[in-house]
Design brief:
Elements lengths: L6 H4 L5 E2 L7 H10 L2 H4 L1 H17 L3 E3 L2 E2 L2 E4 L6 E11 L9 E10 L4 H16 L3 H5 L5 H15 L2
Parallel strand pairs: 1-5, 3-6, 4-6
Antiparallel strand pairs: 2-3, 5-6
Length: 160
């Protein structure tokens, strides 16, 4: 068993996109960040989008197993923000294994905190590492509620 932060506790259903129709990396990143616009405002979201896209150009965040974790730390936010998106068709994301990505976890956190950012990334890697089919399973969800149920069930297997 692991004592680690629960992704489900950092995520709300309004920040879950089921079966996005986006067909490329830039579009899915923009769509995910857009879900934060009510809380952060359009200008902050534009800045965050630029940061995440710039980071992807330097080092893509496709970690394999059809999963990508685009992320950034910025002074523009005061707390950790998570967004999850699924796509029925995979998107080319320059993943480590060369496979298209169909499950995305976006993490945006304050630049003055390293611990929470790394901890949530670790939680995602734990889920992906323990379940090679997590992208396929999460893509079976037809609503944000269903995805949260799947996430909670998956976390129960590995976390205390």
């Amino acid at each position: 068993m692991y004592n680690i932060i629960r992704l489900s506790e950092q995520l709300s259903e309004k920040h879950i996109i089921i079966h996005s129709k986006c067909s490329n990396a830039e579009a899915i990143i923009c769509e995910m960040i857009q879900t934060l616009s009510d809380e952060l405002g359009p200008e902050v979201c534009e800045d965050i989008t630029a940061m995440v896209l710039d980071r992807e150009k330097v080092k893509p965040t496709g970690i394999g197993r059809n999963v990508a974790v685009p992320h950034a730390r910025t002074a523009a936010v005061k707390q950790l923000h998570c967004v999850v998106a699924t796509t029925e068709k995979g998107i080319e994301f320059k993943a480590l294994d060369g496979k298209p990505v169909s499950l995305f976890f976006l993490i945006i956190s304050p630049d003055y905190t390293v611990g929470p950012h790394l901890t949530i990334l670790s939680a995602i890697c734990l889920l992906v590492g323990k379940n090679a089919d997590i992208a396929t399973e999460f893509n079976k969800a037809h609503s944000p509620e269903e995805l949260m149920d799947l996430l909670n069930a998956e976390e129960e297997k590995y976390m205390i």
